[in-house]
C-alpha cells in the first residue's frame, strides 16, 4: 500500500505531525515501537508533572498550618500517588490514540527502519510513501563510571519505584534532575544533586542561578556545583559515590540524569550524523536523503517536546504546500518550586557573544499576587541598546505559563516597552514581567529604579 507520509516515532513530534497530515488530507502511517505518546507522555513530561503536583499539594498542606488552616493529621500513600500518576498518563495517551483513530491515521506497532527514499521496514513488512518523517526521540545518557543497574537508576525507573527513597543522590542538575530532586525532596527523601558545571541548567547565568539554588535549598535540595563523580560502589544498603575531590556521598539510590542521546543508530548507515549522533538536517529539516525529514530530539538541542511538536507540524504543512516557518524562538521551563522558565539570551550568553545590552530585574517580593502566595522569585529581562527584547528569565509560580508571552515578543522582534505597555491583570504574577520590562526604562512602579 502506498502512503503519502510515513512517520517513524509516535511521541509528541510524530503524533502531532500525523494528526496535522491527516487534517490536510494525507494518507498517513505512524510507526511506534512501544506506545503512542513516546517518552514524554508515558515516562517523562506528563508523569513527572503529575508527581510534582502531588508533591506541591503536600507542601501546601504543610504551609496551611502557618496561616491558620489546621488539617489535623495527614500522610502519604505512595501506591495511591502512583495510581494518580498513571491515571494522568492513561487519560492523555488514550485521548491521542482516539484522535489518531478518528482522523484515519493508521498506526502500526514495531521498530521502523529506513531502507531508502520513501521506503520503511517494520518487522518483515515494507511500506512505501512519498515522504518520511523520522521522530524517534532520545534516551538517557549513561556514564561509564556510573553505569545503570541495581540502585543506579534512570528517571523512568525512579518515577515508578516501589517506594520513596530515604535518601537520593542525583547526578546532573539539568531539567530532569532538578524536577526529580524537587518532587522527591517534598515527598520526604533526603536529596543531594551533584553537578559538574559551575551552575545548574547548563549555561544558566550566575545571577539567576543563585536565586534558583536558594529556592532549591528552601525545599530541602542541596546542590553541589563544580563537582564531578569518578565512580560508584553498590552494596546491599545503597550506593557510595566517589567524587573527584576525594570526598564520598552515600545514598539509598542514585539517579543519573546528565543528558540524553539520540535514537539515531538505526538510520546511521543511510543518513549523515554529526559527532554527537544527531541527524544532520537542512533548514527545512530534510536529512541528507531527499524526501526524508527528521524532527525532535534526533536533530539536536533543545531536546524539548514542544519543539518536536512544532517541527512536526511545520514539516507537514510545508509538504502540503502551505506557507510555514520552522520554530526558532523556543522557550524552556523547569518545574521546580517555584518554576524556572527562560527564552532567548541570558546575560552569560549575551556577554559571550560580545553583545551590548541593557538588563533589569524585578523581585517577586514587590508583586502582590506572589506575596499572597508566600512565594519568592525574580524576573530578569535583557534588551539591546535600542530596547528590543533579547531574553527573559523567570523564577516564579507559573513561570511556564508566563514565558510564552516573552517568546512571542522576541519572535516578533518587539521592544521591551511593548511588554511594559500591555495591560496585565492585577493581581497576577505576570505583572512582574511587565514591571521588569518597565524597569529597563527606569519607570517600574513598585521598586526603586536605579
Care to describe what's here?
- There is one protein chain.
- The protein is of the alpha/beta class and 450 residues long.
- It has 3 domains: 2-140 and 261-319, FAD/NAD(P)-binding domain (3-Layer(bba) Sandwich), CATH 3.50.50; 152-258, FAD/NAD(P)-binding domain; 338-439, Enolase-like, domain 1 (2-Layer Sandwich), CATH 3.30.390.30.
- 32% of the residues lie in helices and 25% in strands.
- The strands form 5 sheets. Strands 1, 2, 3, 4, 5, 6 and 17 form a 7-stranded mixed sheet that branches. Strands 8-15-9-10-11 form a 5-stranded parallel sheet. Strands 18-19-22-21-20 form a 5-stranded antiparallel sheet, sandwiched between helices.
- A hairpin with a 4-residue loop joins strand 13 and strand 14 (248-251).
- It is globular.
- 46% of the residues are buried.
- The mean pLDDT is 94.
Overall pLDDT: 94
What is the molecular shape? globular
Count every beta strand, where a strand is a DSSP E run of 2 or more residues.
22
SS field, number of helical segments: 13
Spans with pLDDT under 50 lasting ≥5 residues?
Answer: none
* Structural class computed from helices and strand pairing: alpha/beta
> What is the CATH topology classification name of the largest domain?
FAD/NAD(P)-binding domain
Instruction: Give the CATH class of the largest domain.
Output: Alpha Beta
Radius of gyration: 23 Å
Percentage of residues in DSSP E strands: 15-25%
The CATH architecture of the largest domain? 3-Layer(bba) Sandwich
Amino acid at each position: 500500500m502506498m502512503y503519502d507520509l510515513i512517520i517513524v516515532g509516535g511521541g509528541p513530534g510524530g503524533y502531532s505531525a500525523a494528526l496535522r497530515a491527516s487534517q490536510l488530507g494525507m494518507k498517513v502511517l505512524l510507526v511506534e515501537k512501544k506506545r503512542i505518546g513516546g517518552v514524554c507522555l508515558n515516562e517523562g513530561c506528563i508523569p513527572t508533572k503529575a508527581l510534582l503536583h502531588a508533591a506541591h499539594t503536600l507542601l501546601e498542606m504543610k504551609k496551611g498550618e502557618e496561616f491558620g488552616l489546621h488539617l489535623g493529621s495527614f500522610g502519604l500513600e505512595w501506591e495511591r500517588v502512583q495510581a494518580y500518576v498513571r491515571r494522568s498518563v492513561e487519560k492523555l495517551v488514550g485521548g491521542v490514540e482516539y484522535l489518531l483513530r478518528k482522523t484515519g491515521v493508521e498506526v502500526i506497532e514495531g521498530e521502523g527502519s529506513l531502507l531508502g527514499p520513501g521506503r520503511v521496514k517494520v518487522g518483515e513488512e515494507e511500506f512505501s510513501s512519498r515522504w518520511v518523517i523520522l521522530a524517534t526521540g532520545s534516551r538517557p545518557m549513561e556514564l561509564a563510571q556510573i553505569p545503570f543497574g541495581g540502585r543506579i537508576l534512570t528517571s523512568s525507573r525512579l518515577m515508578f519505584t516501589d517506594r520513596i527513597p530515604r535518601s537520593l543522590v542525583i547526578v546532573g542538575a539539568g531539567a530532569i534532575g532538578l524536577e526529580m530532586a524537587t518532587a522527591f525532596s517534598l515527598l520526604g527523601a533526603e536529596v543531594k544533586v551533584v553537578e559538574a558545571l559551575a551552575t545548574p541548567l547548563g549555561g544558566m547565568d550566575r545571577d539567576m542561578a543563585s536565586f534558583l539554588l536558594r529556592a532549591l535549598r528552601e525545599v530541602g535540595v542541596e546542590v553541589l556545583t563544580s563537582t564531578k563523580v569518578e565512580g560508584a560502589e553498590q552494596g546491599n544498603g545503597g550506593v557510595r559515590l566517589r567524587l573527584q575531590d576525594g570526598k564520598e556521598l552515600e545514598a539509598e539510590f542514585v539517579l543519573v540524569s546528565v543528558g540524553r542521546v539520540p535514537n539515531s543508530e538505526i538510520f546511521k548507515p543511510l543518513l549523515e550524523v554529526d559527532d554527537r549522533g544527531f541527524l544532520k538536517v537542512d533548514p527545512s529539516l530534510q536529512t541528507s536523503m531527499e524526501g526524508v525529514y527528521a524532527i525532535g530530539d534526533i536533530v539536536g538541542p533543545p531536546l524539548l517536546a514542544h519543539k518536536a511538536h512544532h517541527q512536526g507540524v511545520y514539516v507537514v504543512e510545508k509538504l502540503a504546500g502551505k506557507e510555514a516557518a520552522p520554530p526558532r524562538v523556543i522557550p524552556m521551563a523547569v518545574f521546580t518550586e517555584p518554576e524556572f522558565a527562560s527564552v532567548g539570551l541570558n546575560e552569560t550568553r549575551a556577554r559571550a557573544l560580545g553583545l551590548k545590552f541593557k538588563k533589569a530585574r524585578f523581585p517577586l517580593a514587590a508583586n502582590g499576587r506572589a506575596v499572597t502566595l508566600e512565594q519568592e522569585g525574580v524576573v530578569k529581562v535583557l534588551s539591546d541598546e535600542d530596547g528590543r527584547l533579547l531574553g527573559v528569565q523567570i523564577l516564579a509560580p507559573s513561570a511556564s505559563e508566563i514565558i510564552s508571552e516573552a517568546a512571542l515578543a522576541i519572535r516578533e522582534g518587539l521592544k521591551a516597552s511593548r511588554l511594559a505597555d500591555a495591560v496585565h491583570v492585577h493581581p497576577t504574577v505576570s505583572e512582574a514581567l511587565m514591571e521588569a520590562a518597565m524597569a529597563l526604562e527606569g519607570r517600574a512602579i513598585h521598586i526603586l529604579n536605579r
